[in-house]
Amino acid sequence: MNFKEICEAVLEEADGQAIQLASVALTRDSAGDLYLTNPTHRNVVKWVQEEYLRIQLLSGNWEFHHKRGAFLNIVANKDTYTKKYVRRLAYESLYYTPAASTTRIPIIVQDYTWWQGQERTLTAASNQPLNLVEGPMDEWIIWPEPTVAGTIYGEWWLKPQELEKADDTPCWDTHYHMLLKWAVLKMYAAEFIGEGSYDKLQARINNIWPSLWAAFGRDYLPNFESPEPLL
Fold it and tell me: What pLDDT was estimated at residue 123?
């Protein structure tokens, strides 16, 4: 399910009618008119966005934020690259493999101030080890500038990301995309406390949400961290 489909699923579960949203944009067009005018639809879109971020922020150890493999593809004679959403690197895991080679060369991670000093005072020699520096605005700097192409491999963790476009999808496995639907339905149901529809909707939430959340926690949190406190 993508972002738009999750929002539509919330609305359908809430009142039993299939609804096709014209947009998930909460902004205005060039004429100043809202893309999405229905207040309930706007609330659901906003709640899905906010709940997606909230779940990601509940723990720094979610497995769906953990990546392992090719971190940067390096081009000869180019020292600066862009890679977004990196929250944390496992420094000890990083190594560089030149193209057409199986050699693994350890990478040294340095801070930006160190790199500024190297640039200001030193001329890099060809036999110096490669250093990786996190620069501003999602930039990553290789120093000294590599003379051959290759790949930097390692492990890293991602920053929380947002759902913005209609076809954006959550960062976890597809069979848990419905987690956002039921999380948002909890907020939707709260809007109808005291009305007849509330009890029926809340009964469905209570039947599905607890076991779904517990399974999600078991799959995506390390064994030492229990999902129960995150409810």
Answer: 67
